[in-house]
Amino acid sequence: MLGFTFTSLALAATTIISGTLAQKFPNQSAPYNLKLLSDEPTLDGKFLSACHSGAAIEQLCVSNTAATTSGVFYLNTTDSSTVSGFDTGVLVYNLNYGGDANLIASSALRFAFNPATNVVLSYFQPGDEGTDIAIVGLDAESKLFIPSYVDDVVTPNGTGLFYQWHVCNTQFGSYKYLALAWVTYGAPLDGDCKAVNVSAVPAAV
Ligand SMILES: *[C@@H]1O[C@H](CO)[C@@H](O)[C@H](O)[C@H]1NC(C)=O
Ligand SMILES: *[C@@H]1O[C@H](CO)[C@@H](O)[C@H](O)[C@H]1NC(C)=O
Ligand SMILES: *[C@@H]1O[C@H](CO)[C@@H](O)[C@H](O)[C@H]1NC(C)=O
Ligand SMILES: *[C@@H]1O[C@H](CO)[C@@H](O)[C@H](O)[C@H]1NC(C)=O
């Protein structure tokens, strides 16, 4: 369905691990678990957990509990990027790539757009570089939003906070999961997708 190649991944990971890459979003929040809020009873109150979707790639899968390692995330920001008074930046997952807990590849959430659908898959990959980075923020209720300076529905005047998260039966490469996606506009073309909000709750680590 979605054919991605990540040929630059090994190089990118090496660069990050050797610490030579400047971080665009250096201020890291306290740890969070990500809890789902939804009118769909089978999803409301569930959590999101990183699930393997390829070499150093994870999606956000639905989980019954707040997993201790794979369920811990951060918001990385800079003090120069705010929308409607909220800091914006990247959602981060620390991928452990060795037996040692200190061996982590800090990975930012990205979007995999497919021009044939309004359902956009989300996935983590090491670093915070690239045009596919998902810029996000947390609102006053700690709900994860996507900021935009252009809202095509009310344009060209608006700054907006958008909450078009859905849980869908995704296929990313050969990996099939019940996972977090984004719907660009309107009802999801995949009718199995359910609208959710993603609430950041303090994690005990
Ligand atoms: C997030 O911030 C931490 C602390 O500065 C940094 O080590 C990490 O590389 C950052 N991650 C990303 C993806 O920007
Ligand atoms: C990180 O946060 C501190 C405290 O809010 C702030 O003083 C500093 O300027 C921030 N640094 C960056 C690079 O955003
Ligand atoms: C943009 O303008 C329209 C028409 O005046 C208004 O209804 C809408 O609320 C505005 N949007 C924002 C985000 O200010
Ligand atoms: C998500 O939160 C936003 C902002 O509070 C709200 O407008 C929207 O209806 C919520 N969506 C769902 C699926 O609960």
How would you explain this protein's 3D organization?
The chain is mostly beta strands. Helices cover 4% and strands 48% of the residues. The protein is built from 1 helix and 15 strands. It has one helix at 9-17; strands spanning 27-28, 32-37, 47-54, 57-63, 73-83, 86-96, 104-112, 119-126, 135-138, 144-148, 160-162, 165-172, 175-183, 194-195, 197-202. Strands 1, 5, 6, 7, 8, 9, 10, 11, 12, 13 and 14 form an 11-stranded antiparallel sheet that branches. Strands 2-15 form a two-stranded antiparallel sheet. The protein is globular and about 45 Å long.
Q: How many β-strand runs?
A: 15
Give the number of helices: 1
CATH topology: the name is Trefoil (Acidic Fibroblast Growth Factor, subunit A)
Shape: globular
* Small molecules in complex: 2-acetamido-2-deoxy-beta-D-glucopyranose
Mean pLDDT over all positions: 87
> Percent helix among the residues?
under 10%
Radius of gyration: 16 Å
Biggest sheet statistics: 11 strands, antiparallel
Distance between the termini: 37 Å
Which CATH top level class fits? Mainly Beta
Sketch the topology as an H/E string, one letter per element.
Answer: HEEEEEEEEEEEEEEE
Low-pLDDT residue intervals, each spanning 5 or more residues: 1-20
Fraction of residues in β-strands: over 45%
> So, CATH architecture?
Trefoil
Q: Which structural class best describes the helix and strand composition?
A: mainly beta
| Total number of domains | 1
